[in-house]
Amino acid sequence: MMKNANKLPKGFLWGGATAANQCEGGYLEGNKGLSTVDVMPSGKDRFPVGMGKLKMLECDKEHYYPSHEAIDFYHRYKEDIALFGEMGFKCFRLSLSWARIFPNGDDIEPNEEGLKFYDDVFDECLKYGIEPLVTITHFDVPMHLVKTIGSWRSRKMVDYYERLCEVIFNRYKNKVKYWLTFNEINMLLHLPFIGAGLVFEEGENEVAVKYQAAHHQLIASAKATQIARKINPEFKIGCMLAAGNTYANTCAPEDVWRSMEKDRENYFFIDVQSRGEYPNYAKKMLEKLNINLEMEAGDEEILRNNTVDFISFSYYSSRLTSADPKVIGETEGNVFATLKNPYLKASEWGWQIDPLGLRITMNSLYDRYQKPLFIVENGLGAVDNPDENGYVEDDYRIDYLKEHIKAMKDAVNEDGVELMGYTPWGCIDLVSASTGEMKKRYGFIYVDKDNEGNGTLKRSKKKSFEWYKKVINTNGEDLE
Known about the structure:
single chain; TIM Barrel; 6-phospho-beta-glucosidase activity; GH; EC 3.2.1.86
């Protein structure tokens, strides 16, 4: 039977997405420990720290650290979730701060204050009929583990992550159904400190360290899946990819090959999490790089027997590559270097706007894995200019989201892609992970705070707030 071409499935999970490290604040309140993001300053030093090139293991007086207060979700979550409820959210993607639950990461007992905070957050969500979608770790490692064992370069991290999972799955088994093991797991290759708490020493083989850390995260993800199914078979466990297909600059076979290689760099992680084994191309790549991963007996079996239930991903833009070294003109798009695509417009931060690219990416992922997809990040970072009441006429954001939702619906209705839900990124303004800025805003809700930390933190609805409320209310049929 043919479905109505304009319809999304009943029970489609409309909502929005945030991360603890970018919105919570309260960075040492409630016995929380120091986390990797807490030592990441704004300004020129942020990127070198995020890359693991500049060692900053403590806070100092010379820098401003935006995560310390962020948008103060820690104290204002009731107000924020009420606004999400007013928009009609069916789902709210958020993450846990590992250091709020295990302040040092290797503690024997969890921090009850941290656990209680998330109990209260989930209760507030459920009060409005909002399903929590919880990322277990979203660019977040307790700093104690970075200092003592080198974070994910150490196999011990798997044990500490397992302990975290045991605690949260048991504690929240009746409140949370949907879980993601790692946010944008492939970001480990691009921003190693942000993605995995890695800091490099001079002269060490950084690529080898990154892939060893990746193996540990992949094992941890599989073990989390194993633990989850024992505790509550109703849990749905997903992986999470920073996605966006890489186009070839020309139809020259060398360019096409280069684009395939670029996509494989990122697919590698999801291939393991979804299919349960290292793909042959990855084995060959590691062999060529003379990287011998340290694996323990049983690792292959753990990966094989504990694959994810669904594939979640972020999509902001497509990418473009060339095999020709003479082709220049790169722009940054969500940390991924890409050539400028002459057929696409770009955001103020150089991220290329490509709604059809979302449909292409969805088809690529669904063809590859045949598992349900979940778009857990998508949005436009832009400078908003509020009036005296904090109201923003953000038609540019509405236009961006409208075109991406149309492409998403085409993938579902025209192409048969199975899609669970859509949670645009930064449903409320928050701190940018890559730049530490507040002026790069994504939200339907404006937060009065600037890049230097000044402002009242007052929340106000943008024009897109009422628009998205209508979209949800009509299950995506009314996009005007």
